[in-house]
Amino acid sequence: MEVKLDYEHEVTVPEMMYARDHRVVMQRKLIAEFQHPVVCFMLNVPGPHKVGEEFEKAFRYGVKNINEALEKHGMKKDAEKEEAFVTGYIYYVSVDADAVDIKKAMCEIEEKDRIGRIFDIDVLRTDGSKVSREEFGMGPRKCLMCELEAHICARNRTHTVKSMVEEIHRIIKESFAGA
Question: Does the predicted TM-score (pTM) go above 0.85?
Fold first, then answer.
């Protein structure tokens, strides 16, 4: 990924909306071309700054883990693509395997260690719908800051963006300490 990004840029709501729409287009394009489920990976970073050296390092680690998990489970990749925008880093991969099996493998990554808590790994079926953790008995993801369900804290704005971003930086630093 040889893109020069403005690490100081504060992402706007219209930029986030455009990025979301762009992801949907890319996901649909891969599904249409390969007729297999698609993994879409990003970092879950609140606040106006979505890129930087630490975030890119965490992203690279996530991509490595995804590829290792696919290989470990004997899942064949059709195609992969990376993108970098001020709204964050994105990795797409079309996988010739069952969507629920792929999601189970991706949940292993999200649950494996603390840095997995900042990974946002969606698996889309060929009809474009997302596979949910709840479909195979996994509960909702826990909050980064406490043990409540993440969506409850997000809805209630339980934690400040500043405290969550500080925690994310702490997680990344601890994950790569001594590396």
Answer: yes
In whole angstroms, give the CA distance from residue 79 to residue 34.
8
pLDDT values of the chain reduced to their tens digit, one per residue, 179 residues: 444 567 788 899 999 999 999 999 999 999 999 999 999 999 999 999 999 999 999 999 999 999 999 999 999 999 999 999 999 999 999 999 999 999 999 999 999 999 999 999 999 999 999 999 999 888 888 888 988 898 899 899 999 999 999 999 999 999 998 66
The total of other beta-carbon atoms located within 10 Å of residue 38's CB is 26
Q: Which residues of 135-152 are buried (b: 16+ CB within 10 A; e: fewer)?
A: eeeeeebebbeeeeebee
Q: 140 forms bridges with which residues in the sheet?
A: none
How many residues in total does the chain contain? 179
> Which range marks the domain in which residue 62 is found?
13-138
Number of domains in the chain: 1
Rounded Cα–Cα distance for residues 121 and 10 (Å): 24
Query: Does residue 168 fall inside a structural domain?
Result: no
Whether residue 62 contacts residue 109, with contact meaning beta carbons closer than 8 Å, is answered with yes
CATH code, domain with 79: 3.30.70.260
CA dist 55 and 60 (Å) reads: 9
Are 125 and 132 in contact, with CB atoms under 8 Å apart?
A: no
